[in-house]
Amino acid sequence: MTQWQLTATLPADFTAKPLRQLLTQDWWLPKHLVFSLKRGQRVLVNGSYRPVNFDVLAGDRLQLTFVPEDFDHPFSNVDPDSAATVAVLYETADLLVVNKTPGSKTHPNQPGEVGTTLNHVAAYLEPKGQQPYILNRLDQETSGALLIAKNPAVVPPLVRAIKEKQVQRTYLTWVHGRFNSDHGTIALPIGRDLEDQRKRRVDGEHAQSAITHYQVIQRTETATLVAIRLQTGRTHQIRVHLSALGHPIVGDPLYAHDARQQRLLLHSWQLKLPLPFSFAEVRLVAPVPDSFRAFEVTQ
């Protein structure tokens, strides 16, 4: 039977607490999963089952075993495609960060669809007997760091980490024009554009709060290199906000008016990530694409 087993050793500075508190508050496991582990006696502490009100201590070794019945959707069922384009930035037994190529959709939208980043990652994981589980997406023309789970057990903690702003992404982009200020915050609500279903716009239909922070990295006579950190995650948020300021992203096919051969210069550059079922975090950098440097040379 398929199952997923996770192990962890509590650090030396860990303060003793009930197992239930560790699982729900520190490791962000939903209560229904904790209940399933308890009911199936699939929580071992130092090799023995312990009830969830049992105190765990520094140095204790925990083993959690999950089964398909624990999840509504235990298998991702993504058709594998060629793994040739998969560039791994970071990998553990439970998660993967890849450097997404521009022009590749993040995930398939219909059964049997191939050619997306997730299809490529499925091919990469297939020899290991693993499947990819999507956690967030990047627009098709956006490149850079993309976080993917390798089993369903780490999906809820990572989704919660994203919701609690513990996963922090910094984007890099070239925009048209020179920014006057070195840094700032854009707080403009974003909704649907009724004139073009592909687009979003400030104060559009069903607008939601959207907050974007920016820091200027470099200026030329006609363009600005900007680092972007999102506080919210609306569709096309970076593209819409920068366009609303009069600084559309270079190569944006929807919000700028560049030559068709110019790719969108938006890159998921840095990623800070708390590792699930641990107390550690990692910081990753996705190499800046050659297209960014080529554009700089022409300015």
Kindly list the characteristics that best describe this protein.
single chain; 299 residues; alpha+beta; Structural Genomics Hypothetical 15.5 Kd Protein In mrcA-pckA Intergenic Region, Chain A; Pseudouridine synthase; 3 domains; ten-stranded mixed sheet; pseudouridine synthase activity; PsdUridine_synth_RsuA/RluA
Instruction: Give the domain tally.
Output: 3
Strand content: 25-35%
CATH architecture of the largest domain: 2-Layer Sandwich
Overall pLDDT metric: 94
Radius of gyration: 22 Å
Question: Biggest β-sheet: count, sense, barrel?
Answer: 10 strands, mixed
Under CATH, the homologous superfamily of the largest domain reads: Pseudouridine synthase
Question: Helix/strand/pairing class, anyone?
Answer: alpha+beta
Helicity, as a percent range: 10-25%
Quick one: how many beta strands? 19
Q: Which residues sit in consecutive blocks of at least 5 with pLDDT less than 50? A: none
CATH class of the largest domain: Alpha Beta
Note the total helix count. Answer: 6
* Amino-to-carboxy terminus distance: 59 Å
Order of helices and strands: EEHHEEEEEEHEEHEEEEEEEHEEH
CATH topology of the largest domain: Pseudouridine synthase
- Please state the overall shape, judged from the principal axes of the Cα atoms: elongated
